[in-house]
Amino acid sequence: MTADRIARRIAVHGKVQGVCFRAWTIEQATAIGGIDGWVRNRMDGSVEALAAGPTDKVEALIAKLHEGSPASRVDRVEVEDTPGIVGPGFVQKPTV
Fold it and tell me: Domain Acylphosphatase-like, which positions (predicted)?
C-alpha cells in the first residue's frame, strides 16, 4: 500500500448478524466510494470486513462500522493493518 492508501481488517461484534449489516456495509462503502474489499459473517457471530483505499475513505467506513446499521447493536470494533490484496469493488463473501 502507498502512503495515501491503506488496508484494514475490521471485526465488528454485537448484534450484527440477521440485521442486514453486510448489505448495509456494502452500501456505506459504495456511498463513500474508492474502497475495495469485502464483508462476511463469521461463525462466532461477528462480521468481518477488509477495506482498502485512500486513508480518509477507509477511516470513514470504519467510523460508520462503529455506528452500525439501524437494526444492529455494535459492542466492539477491532481494527488491524493488513496487506489488503483485494480485487476491485466491495463485495459480500460467504460465511467462514
Answer: 7-94
The DSSP 8-state label assigned to residue 43 in this structure reads T
Q: Residue type for 53, please? A: G
pLDDT in tens, 32-58: 999 999 999 999 999 999 999 999 999
Q: Which cell numbers in the block locate residue 74?
A: 455494535
In a domain, 43, yes or no: yes
d(CA 44, CA 76): 14
Q: What is the CATH number of the domain that holds 63?
A: 3.30.70.100
| Secondary structure of residue 27 in the 3-state scheme | helix
Catalytic residues: 22, 41
Taking the C-alpha atoms of residue 37 and residue 27, their distance in angstroms, rounded to an integer, is 13
Give the number of domains in the chain.
1
> If pLDDT is split at 50, 70 and 90, which confidence band does 84 have?
confident
